[in-house]
Amino acid sequence: MSLDPLLARYARPVPRYTSYPTAPYFSRLANDARYGEWLKALPAGAEETSLYLHVPFCSALCLFCGCHTTVVNKPRPIAAYAATLRAEIALLAQAIGRPLVVRHLHWGGGTPTMLGPSELILTMDTLARHFILAEDAEIAIEIDPRTLSREMVEALREMGATRASLGVQDFDPLVMDTVHRPQPFEEVAEAVLSLRGAGIAGINFDLMYGLPYQSEESVARTARRALELDPDRIAVFGYAHVPWVKRHQRLLPEAALPDLSARYRQREAAARALTESGYIPVGLDHFARPGDALAAAAASGSLRRNFQGYTTDMAPVLLGLGTSAIGALPHAYVQNAPRIPEWSEAVRARRLPAERGIVLSAEDQLRREVIEGVMCRLEVDLAATAEKHGASLESLLTPRLAAFAEDGLIAWDGRRLKVAEKGRPFLRAVAALFDAYYRPEDGLSRYSLGI
């Protein structure tokens, strides 16, 4: 079958499956006390946990952005947010009632470094008072290379950062000017040099395709230039054009956006440039150097996926802090209030700011394991997984499995599913086969294209 029919059939809007069920199907929690009860009831195996801290600020708005963030250029709201975040840390620890060991800590945004050196260090000190930070903990932070100062690099060293994720996107001046993010190669190179000089050895890059004025050649050129800086991991994301959700995206020239076929070719061009240089494909859209822990996890079958993407994090609990942050418990997901005023008000009132969530049914837990198997290992034994959860294989089957197999995207023997390399770009569509909540008509308004 030629490419275009495959794209028309399988590149429809679908979730990214950083959780299952996905966030649009969370419902409002009756009160924060329920979350508190869940925290106190965490099983003994949850003595190790992961933390995610969300900082919803940027110095300028990138027109491709789909994050929970806002532009702030005054220190007062940033300082107020940092103080509230520290209060939430104390509140969360009190609700848990016992010290937990943290092996993975991720700062995301927005631009977490917008807090500034002193506020970041203060917040890390607060975390260290209320949680046990393991000596080998991974402390990762997302960084805008354009705003990385010497003082900030020193602060990152002092707070023990081990990994930095740099938003690169593209090196083409026309593309970056169009999306309001002028960022020359030299600026990124200087940031990488400074971070490594401070002992922050883990370097991740985020690249994008599907932006205005990108081409197959320009995306491949950016990937090759990125390789000159020798990052450990590179994520290649497709731009999610959802102007009905993110109004600022309406400022982009839609006529300059690539069509579906061009998007696919751009994705493949970037992937080809990276794999030809020896990087290992990981899951849907990540690439890692041989020997990197992410590549090793993919090879061993221990790769995981959470709200930050692909990870080596094996902790059974992820706790979210900050506005809109999502946490994952063994039996539930919880999301904080998405707007700063409501989040701040709850913390000031000494209430956990959890606003939405979902308790996983037995079927949800079964389908979550299946979907993670598809997204992380590209294969899953449906029969064995169903039996493990006390369910029937038939409860997972759908007639569409046969169509995916006929088109060469998966191998399917009636029990076990394995995604072919041809099917890797369509991984989200394969996962959607097992999503009991997803409806194609919902996808048109909620999700980005599956390529």
Please specify the SSE layout and strand pairing:
Layout (H helix, E strand, L loop, with lengths): L2 H8 L16 E2 L3 H9 L7 E8 L1 E2 L11 E2 L3 H22 L4 E9 L7 H14 L1 E12 L6 H9 L4 E7 L3 H6 L6 H13 L4 E8 L6 H12 L5 E6 L21 H17 L3 E3 L3 E3 L4 H8 L3 E3 L2 E3 L6 E4 L4 E4 L2 E5 L3 H9 L5 E6 L2 H16 L1 E3 H7 L11 H7 L3 E3 L3 E4 L7 H6 L7 H7 L5
Parallel strand pairs: 2-5, 2-14, 3-4, 5-6, 6-7, 7-8, 8-9
Antiparallel strand pairs: 1-17, 9-11, 10-11, 12-13, 15-16, 16-17, 18-20, 19-20
Describe what is shown at a glance:
The chain is an alpha/beta fold.
> What's the domain count?
2
| Poorly predicted segments | none
Radius of gyration, in angstroms, nearest whole number: 21 Å
Q: Helical proportion? A: 25-40%
Distance between the termini: 18 Å
At the fold tier of CATH, the topology name of the largest domain is pyruvate-formate lyase- activating enzyme
How does this structure look, described?
There is one protein chain. The protein is α/β, with parallel strands linked by helices and 451 residues long. The protein folds into 2 domains: 334 residues, tm_1862 like domain (pyruvate-formate lyase- activating enzyme, Alpha-Beta Horseshoe), CATH 3.80.30.20; 85 residues, Orthogonal Bundle (Arc Repressor Mutant, subunit A). Strands 10-11-9-8-7-6-5-2-14 form a 9-stranded mixed β-sheet, sandwiched between helices. A 4-stranded antiparallel β-sheet has the order 1-17-16-15, covered by helices on one side. The chain has a 3-stranded antiparallel β-sheet with strand order 18-20-19. Helix 5 links the parallel strand 6 and strand 7. Helix 3 runs parallel beside helix 4, helix 3 packs across helix 11 and helix 4 runs parallel beside helix 5.
